[in-house]
Amino acid sequence: MKIKSFVLASLVGVVLAGAANAVELKVGYVNTQRIFRDAPAAQKAAKKLEGEFAKRDQELQRMAKQLQGLQENLEKNSVTMAETERRSKEKEFAELSREFQRRQREFREDLNLRQNEENAAVIEKANKAIKQIAESDKFDLILQDVVWVSPRLDITDRVIKALSEAK
């Protein structure tokens, strides 16, 4: 019995000593989605990408309308068309459809690649701003992408402001 009491007393002593020596941890949180949505650098990158890809997007839209028109024409007039004309229109539709799908796939791949490049640049700038805030305000830990966080720990507005000033 004395051994159990001694072990229990020792454990309580260790826990109390640890609590007395504990240093308060300063924690912050940054909402990455808000950075991508609200930061001037992210908005500028989005406009840049929009301008870069606008012409190709318009071309894809034009091709889609052309495909739709061909399909409607085939559905409406295939019964009254001559066999050779119908086959010719079907072949034209199939070729245009393949070309459209190929261009659409290339467009998506190129856009995703450029978005990733621009997002990486925004994240790099944001990480620099976060590091400066952490050092100046003596944060011990700054988290991103958590399930839940108290609003009092959220420093996202400060990071966005720092990114605005950094331009």
Characterize the largest beta sheet: strand count, sense, and whether it forms a barrel: 2 strands, parallel
Going by CATH, the architecture would be: 2-Layer Sandwich
> What is the H-and-E element order?
HEHHHEH
CATH homologous superfamily, by name?
Answer: Skp domain
Give Rg in angstroms.
Answer: 30 Å
Tell me the CATH topology. Protein Binding, DinI Protein, Chain A
Secondary structure layout plus pairing:
Elements: H1 2-21, E1 27-30, H2 32-38, H3 40-77, H4 83-136, E2 141-144, H5 156-166
Parallel strand pairs: 1-2
Description:
This protein is mostly helical. It has one domain: 2-Layer Sandwich (Protein Binding, DinI Protein, Chain A). It has 5 helices and 2 strands, in the order αβαααβα. The chain has helices spanning 2-21, 32-38, 40-77, 83-136, 156-166, and strands at residues 27-30, 141-144. A two-stranded parallel sheet has the order 1-2. The protein is rod-shaped, with a radius of gyration of 30 Å. The protein starts with a helix and ends with a helix. Residues 4-20 have low confidence and may be disordered.
